[in-house]
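TA notes, week 10

Several of you asked for a full example with nothing omitted. So below is the full record: structure tokens for the whole chain, then the designed sequence directly under it. When grading your own attempts, check the secondary structure regions first.
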């Protein structure tokens, strides 16, 4: 009985020893496998390190050149952020700029000077009649009155003159029938009558209680007033200037040194006196009219 128990213990010890060895063997195998995995990861790490090293070397190669004075190197992102654009240089017209002073004038036929049709005291039709005011064709701008003048009113004088020359013309007609007057004298009497009649009709058409009316013959803007209200004017004196401002002419005087370049001038940039507005002649449908 004792021998049998001892033999069973020996067998149990032997089995336990075998299992312990197998366990140690498995552990040793797992360790070796993990070591191999670690070695593989280390190799990958070495590969990444070599790649970074090559990138740095290429980067140094791209920036190896040196910039000269006045040169600036920008990246693509900086180029786009600044809103820069590339344009190929080609052969194009190149113009020289000549700075000078000029004056804007009304084009021919776009400006009219209104003159007094009779002598007398002038009064404006509107208290707000100033330069720059818009006016329409036929609008009354001023009145010329000769009331209380020493030589009387012009309309009355013209009426008396018309009656006188009319009587002379009628007498000349009677004498011409009987051949008692020459053809030249008859024609002169008729001319005097027609001139007096036209002048009287012109004055009468503009006659009002305030005097002879001065009407605008253009629709546009009042450019200048040459007289003050209450002043005495003679027949034919300039009263006002009206312009349409649809077309303007730019006159520029150049120095004599630029005389040889006159045939090559084709356009102009206009800056107003206040310096705030600049106009390009080409955008205004302008053109060179003449030079001399």
């Amino acid at each position: 009985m004792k021998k049998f128990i001892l033999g069973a213990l020996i067998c149990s010890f032997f089995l336990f020893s075998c299992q312990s060895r197998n366990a140690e063997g498995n552990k040793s195998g797992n360790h070796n496998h993990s070591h191999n995995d670690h070695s593989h990861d280390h190799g990958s790490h070495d590969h990444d390190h070599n790649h970074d090293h090559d990138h740095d070397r290429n980067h140094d190669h791209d920036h190896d050149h040196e910039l000269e004075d006045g040169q600036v190197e920008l990246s693509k992102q900086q180029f786009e952020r600044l809103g820069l654009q590339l344009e190929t240089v080609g052969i194009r017209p190149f113009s020289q700029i000549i700075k000078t002073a000029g004056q804007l004038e009304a084009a021919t036929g776009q400006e009219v000077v209104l003159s007094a049709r009779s002598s007398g005291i002038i009064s404006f039709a509107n208290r707000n009649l100033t330069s720059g005011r818009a006016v329409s064709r036929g609008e009354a701008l001023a009145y010329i009155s000769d009331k209380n003048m020493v030589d009387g009113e012009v309309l009355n004088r013209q009426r008396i003159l018309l009656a006188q020359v009319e009587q002379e013309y009628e007498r000349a007609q009677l004498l011409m029938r009987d051949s008692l007057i020459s053809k030249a004298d008859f024609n002169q009497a008729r001319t005097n009558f027609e001139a007096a009649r036209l002048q009287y009709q012109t004055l009468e058409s503009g006659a009002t209680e305030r005097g002879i009316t001065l009407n605008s013959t253009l629709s546009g803007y009042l450019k200048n007033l040459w007289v003050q209200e209450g002043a005495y004017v003679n027949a034919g004196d300039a009263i006002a200037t009206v312009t349409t401002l649809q077309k303007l002419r730019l006159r520029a005087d150049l120095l004599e040194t630029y005389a040889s370049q006159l045939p090559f001038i084709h356009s102009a940039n206009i800056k107003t006196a206040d310096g705030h507005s600049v106009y390009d002649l080409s955008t205004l449908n302008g053109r060179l009219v003449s030079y001399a």
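Confidence is low (pLDDT under 50) at residues 1-63. Use that as a sanity check on your answer.
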